[in-house]
Write a structure and sequence with these properties.
452 residues; 13 helices; binds nicotinamide-adenine-dinucleotide; alpha/beta; single chain; globular; 33% helix
Length: 452
Amino acid sequence: MNKANFSRRAFLRASAGAAGASLVAGSTLLEPAPLFAAGQTVAPSDRIRFGIVGVGMEGSGLLTTAVQLPGVECVAAADLYDGRHDLAKEIVGRPIRTTRRYKELLDAKDIDAIIVAVPDHWHKQVVVDAIAAGKDVYCEKPMSHSAADGMAMVAAQKKSDRIVQIGAQRTSSVVSAKAKDLLAQGVIGDLNLVEMTFGRNDPTGAWEYPPPPDLSPANLDWDTWLGTAPKKAFDPYAFARWRCWREYGTGVAGDLMVHLISGMQFVMGINEAPRQASAMGGIYRWKDGRNMPDVHTVLFQYGEIPVYVRLSLGCATPEVTTFMGSKGTLEYRGSSVKFSAQQGVDVSPSYYSGSFPAKMRKEYEQAWHAEHDPVPGKETVDQGISYTSDDYDDLKPHLWNFFQSVRSRKPVVQDAVFGHHAALACHMANESYFRKSRVAWDEATGEIKSIS
Ligand SMILES: NC(=O)c1ccc[n+]([C@@H]2O[C@H](COP(=O)([O-])OP(=O)(O)OC[C@H]3O[C@@H](n4cnc5c(N)ncnc54)[C@H](O)[C@@H]3O)[C@@H](O)[C@H]2O)c1
């Protein structure tokens, strides 16, 4: 190999073995699977034509990514704000149909699938209507705006044969897959606690987005935008900053925590709602009229395992999920996952012996060393394993997983039941915060109940 071409990536691979190699201590650079190789030969008959509903901050990113995928084509976009019709055409780069009425996309015979990227309070209606119209659906996270909405969406999926993928893209990342492998191999021993943390500290991170300067009732269908939310005079700030209010959004829980919870469900291989949630928080930093907390801490119970979550818009901290067990920690942050081993045994005589009289302490220490000291040269070396990926966009594999399922009719990685469970954790966190009470999910009645 030419020395100049011996990159850091090649070095890491050469020094630690290829990604996916069996469990060895060291550091490995992960690469996303070559997802698109098969797609490059997509037959014209397998082309998927999709329409998108909602071309805002996230919808524009979804559209930009989706139109780059082989065998996938956007033919129409719906948005209540006309400025986003122009944006959709700019992104697609050729004429597409645009409309304010999403039902026109559902009626169109040339559309196979719908991408839904409207604010949370509109998810249920668009998804239920799209399934009823026979479309496959990719819906943004959090799947639902309430537990009842989620139940209706799951019921709609279950009584149809439509593909539904929910858009918490972490479940399609190679890093998540590696974390899942490591956990399944039992590297951390018996799992006894999960901790998830994330914090931001800037106006944009706290959703204080600038409304589009030309926004007005002339170019936005404001009444329809409000949907089932209480009637309110045109408010460009509600339009741009809807996450701040419970009427439209699901707060830091639905905006941020849902990614952590979805990742945790995937890595742990579970698909269930938490049994209980107990939350605290408040509006400490952004007193701008919002009603959703900017600091939100939650203690969940999943099965028998406590899961502690700390979310803040008042102080920036990295996004980290730590799985803790009897043999060490598995820490998942951004584009890396790291296992740090722990022996779980004493490595020196117990400091409790400091409370023994001198003669007794000496005898205890001698006996301890005789029993525990390793043969020289055979000392234990703690194992550490880390995997890092380039900071790549996991939206692409997540969308690809959806479009491949649309073609193959095989299950997606994150169906409505999975998305419902992740969203339920968010609703329970919010209900507990607002009710100032511990809550539990009652599957039989489909309600979040306060418990003492
Ligand atoms: N997966 C992620 O990482 C990620 C990131 C950001 C946002 N999101 C999710 O994406 C969704 C959209 O968020 P956003 O930040 O793009 O919001 P946004 O306000 O920027 O865009 C939403 C768009 O939907 C349009 N819209 C609203 N109701 C509509 C209706 N009934 N018919 C047609 N158009 C309608 C609005 O006019 C607006 O242009 C949210 O659910 C959000 O949680 C996901």
